[in-house]
Every structure is written in C-alpha cells, then in structure tokens.
Amino acid sequence: MQRVAKAGGDQALRRHSEAIAFLVMASLLVLAPMFAYPVFLMKALCFALFACAFNLLIGYVGLLSFGHALFFGWASYISAHAAKVWGLPPELAILSGAAAAAGLGAIVGALAIRRQGIYFAMITLALAQMMYFFAVQAPFTHGEDGIQAVPRGKLFGLIDLADQTNMYVTVLVIFLGCFLLIYRIINSPFGEVLKAIRENEPRAISLGYRSERYKLVAFVLSATFAGVAGATKALVFQLASLTDVDWPMSGEVILMTLVGGLGTLFGPVAGAFFVVTLENYLTTIGQWVFVVQGVIFVVCVLLFRRGIIGELAQVLRVKL
Amino acid sequence: MFELFGISSQALFGQLLIGLINGSFYALLSLGLAVIFGMLNIINFAHGAQYMLGAFAAYFLLQYAGLGYWWAILLAPIVVGITGIIIERLFLQWLYKLDHLYGLLLTFGLALIFEGTFRNFFGSSGLPYSVPPALQGGQNLGFMFLPNYRGWVVVFSLAVCLTTWFVIERTKLGSYLRAATENPALVRAFGINVPRMITLTYGFGVALAALAGVMAAPIYNVSPQMGANLIIVVFAVVVIGGMGSIMGAIVTGFGLGLIEGLTKVFFPEASNTVIFIIMAIVLLIRPAGLFGRSA
Lengths: 320, 295
Hints:
Largest sheet of chain B: 2 strands, antiparallel
Oligomer: heterodimer
Number of strands of chain B: 4
Largest interface: A-B, 42 and 45 residues
Shape of chain B: globular
Low-confidence stretches of chain A: none
Number of strands of chain A: 2
Structural class of chain B: mainly alpha
Mean pLDDT of chain A: 92
Strand order of the largest sheet of chain A: 1-2
Radius of gyration of chain B: 19 Å
Mean pLDDT of chain B: 91
Helix content of chain B: over 70%
Low-confidence stretches of chain B: none
Distance between the termini of chain B: 48 Å
Largest sheet of chain A: 2 strands, antiparallel
Helix content of chain A: over 70%
Structural class of chain A: mainly alpha
Order of helices and strands of chain A: HHHHHEEHHHHHHHH
Shape of chain A: globular
Strand content of chain A: under 5%
C-alpha cells in the first residue's frame, strides 16, 4: 500500500517536473529576443525541433537513423520551391515540405526497418546519400547555388513574415506546438508500446504487438517533424541548399541529441542550443569545427553518455 | 579495338577496369569492416578516414623520408595499423559492453577529427602521387589498353583478399578468431588471450583500409575527403553482402564495382546512385543480404 502511494507521489512529482521545465523553457524563449539575435534563435529553434524529431526515434524506439538530413533537407527544398515557384503562402509551403518528408519517411522507413540494429544506421545513411545525389542532379534544386531569395510571404494572408518579430513568434509557435505534440506521442499508449519495443522487441511481439508497424509509424512521425523543422528553416533563411541534405547534417543532429541527452524530453533542445551557439563562436576557425564536433562525440560517448539534461535529471532526481 | 553496343571497346573495358579497381577497394574495406565487426561488435565509421590516412602516410613517406611506393605499401599499413591499436586501447575497449550505437558514434567522431585535421592543413584539393616507375606504361590487349598500375591494383587486392579469407577460414589462427567471435568467454577459458586478439584484429582491419589507401593514391590523388564518401558506399556494400561471410564481402565488393563501371558506360547519370538502388532492391527481396544469415 505504502509502496503504491510512494510510486503515486513520484508520478506526480515527475509530471510536475516536466511541466515546470516546459514553462521555464517557454518563458525563456519568449524573453530571449531581448537578449539574443532573433535569426540565431530561430536557427537554434529549427535545429531543436529537428533534434526532438530525431530523438523520438533513437530515444524512444532505440533506432539510430544516420540519414535524418534527408528529411530535413528535402523538406526545406520542397518548401522553398513551393514558396518561390508555386507562390504558396508560408503555412502551405511548410505543410508541403512536411508532407514530402512524411512520404520519403514512409519509403525509407519501410526499407530500413527490414534490418535490425547497426544495419539500420547504415541503410538510412546510404539512402540519405542516394537522395543527396538526386538533390545534386535535380534541376529544381539549382545544385551548388541552392534555392535562393525564397519569399517569406504572409502567414494566412495577414501576418507579414518579412518582419523579424512576426517570423520569430511563428517559429516559436511551430516549435512549441510540435514539442507538445511529441510529448503527447511519447506519453500515449502508442508511445508506451514504442518504449516496450525499445526495451525488448521479441517480448513486445510475443504480446501481440506488430513491432514493424509501430516502428514504421514512429519513423514516419520522426521524418515529418524533421521535415517541419527543415521547411521552417528554409523560410527563416530564405534559402534551401545542399548543406542541409548532406551527411554532416545527419551527424550534427545526432551530436545535438547526444550532447543534450538521448531519450530525455528536453535534452535535444538543450543540445541544439549548445551546438548552434558553439558553431556561432567557432565560425572563424574553419575546418576545426569538424574536429571540435568529433572531440565532443568522443568525450560524450566515453564519459558523458547521459548528456546535459540526463545528468541534470540525475542530480535533481527528476525526469526531464 | 572494336565497337560493342555502339560503344568503343576501350570505353567499355576501360570503365569495367575502373569498376574492378573500385571493387577491390570496396572488397578490402568491407572485408576489414566485417572482420572488425565480428570481433569487436563495432561498426568502424573511421574506416574511410583510415583509408585516407593510408594514402597520406604514403605521401608523407615520399615527401619527408624519400621512401617510394614499395616502402609505402609495406610501411603505411603498419603505421596506420599501430594507430588503430592505440585507438582500440584508448577508446574502443570501453565500449564492448554497451549498445552497438556507441561504437558507431565514437568512431564517427574519430573520423570527423581525422578528416577535419587533414582538411585544415591540406585543403580540399588533392595532392598528386605518381605511379611507381616499375609499373608505368601499359599493355595493348587488342580490345583495350591496360595501364600496368591498374592491372597491379586488381591482382594485388584480389591476392590480399584471398589470403585474408584463407587465414581466417583455413588456418588455426583463423579458427581461434572465429571461435572468439562465437564465444569469447569459452575461448578465454582455454587460455587464449582474447583481449589481445581483439586489439590485433582491429589493427589488422585498419591496416587493410590503409593498404587500400596506398593503392588508391596514384589513381585518385591524396585528399582529405577521399574516404568520407567512400565509406558510405562501403556501408551499402556491407548491407548488400551481409557481414556474415568473408568470401561474401569479397564477391560483393568486386561485383558491385563491376556493376558501377557498367552503369558509367550505359547510364552515367545513375553511376553515383546505382549501388544504393541495388541495396534498396536487395532489402526488398532478401532482407538479410546476399550472403547474410538472417539476423
């Protein structure tokens, strides 16, 4: 009886810890433009959403995708193309980017989940590289130049996104909305099944869950959120380029999630802000950026596997 | 020289030869990956970077020690192999009990460190490395002109691959290795130093990558990112072949190189992507890979 009550107390504490952390994060982000450059914040938010999408897969299903730049980059191409060439308003441009990412996610996911474990990472990497070569060759991406001067347009025909504050609020709303949606997914019965598959797949199968379907749906969801992030980034920077589809981008999102804490709710956000800030300071040192990233990978894997938020949660004895 | 399907025999067989050469690099690299994975349970993402290190080692030996190709082909794999052994002792040995993914992430970090460092000092353009004097020139075979060096690369890689296969599948040392892959605790109980075997295996796999790098130097120049894209293709090769069989890795490597060469002749737009497309098809029909045991 007492144990049940104690577990109930822990449960309540846990729920509160996440709600408090969310409120702190949201209010910091609302206040942040007073202290930091809005474009930098928007970039960090896009990457934070990208990392949350990636974390949905690795943190809660245990699948390491090494090709998430595919969804991020192609969604940014599609949304840039939609806004510039088709003249779609920003909300539809982002939606079309996300839809493209979902479609690609369904194809790549269906292929990749046919193999387990480490092969999954190699397959996603190889398919992403294939789509990178398509992006290099396809005429509408404009190769090395990318799609430039993408118009931000008017949101719902009313709000002019050329205004930096309007754009920031839009990006913030997209980020917080997707973040809550991901939280909802993780804590739904569907999310519980995903965690069961992560912990012990044969057992989940023996309980009657079709693990392949769950994995595929999770993959498509993750690809879609990555797509929203990429599509939004294309509007923020008014540019879609090869950088966003190339494999170092896939590595970067892994780095962000690892630094922040795999399988923690807030880790990817913290990791994204950490990495984007770091790169901001390191732009002057050229190729050493890769070396610094590599060193962080090595240090995190050897000494710091819980990540920033994971360690913090450990110290505070709460779930974050 | 004659024409075949409207393509001159020189173009066709020339591309097939390049295909075979690429195939020998795929074979050497996927062989190394498979051997390392078998013993360490780690996918060595740094393999492409170590191939690049092999080529640079050859370049340094020539520039700073005046040692030519034949010394390089002997010394570069040893030097890079020793760095591999140091990496295994310093980093990898702590990861064997963890999830596979940490090994992949750590070696990915190492690849970024190596490639970033070299790009910083040597830029992105390639450095030339000339063909050794003994292998300059070529043979006219009637249907094509065969540069001696390219013929040597194919023959020598095939010999190295088959020797590796023989050692692992047919000798006593190889049987220890295979036994330790299956059940390290039991092999240890028989008094064999398994941790040292694991260290040496990693060193050997890395040395194979470096050897491929030395052979590639006169063909593709020496450049910091020569391994970065190659490793992704090699991953696809590994997925297609499956890592269960040594001979499978060799056959898949050479076979895919040939197919890529043919694609360059008949459908050049797809030559970059053909291996990935084959991988997708193999996943649809034979998810475990051509030579793989079902996971």
